[in-house]
Amino acid sequence: MDALHLDANLLLWYIALNEWILIAVPDIQMDIEYELKTGQLAYFLPRPISYLGSKFVEGLGALLLNMLVLGATGFAFTYFWTGGWPYSSFDFFIFIFLGSLGGLLSLVFTMLVGVSAFL
After folding, report:
1. pTM here?
2. 63 Cβ neighbours under 8 A, 6+ residues apart
3. Smallest Cα–Cα separation from 58: which of 7, 114, 16?
4. Do 104 and 63 meet the contact criterion of CB atoms below 8 Å apart?
């Protein structure tokens, strides 16, 4: 059986891009579940802003900050470790855009997990 011949630098960039998204997503479901179980949710409901909307914006702010810090750190380390960027600059912006969309989608699913504590 022939082994796969994969470039170690490309694999390191793959890991950096994936972990950038996975680690950056905040654990907003824990806050939603805690506020539901302790009864603090009752204090948020009469406010003029949507509870889920406020939690989404709170999570989005944490997501953007985490993605900025982790992206700068992780990409700088990976660039230093591999000696360069293996793709064009256009590809880099596509990765950033798709990674941001992936983080946003992950945030929505994380909120759905938190809302499922109502059941």
Report:
1. 0.86
2. 24, 25, 26, 103, 104, 107
3. 114
4. yes
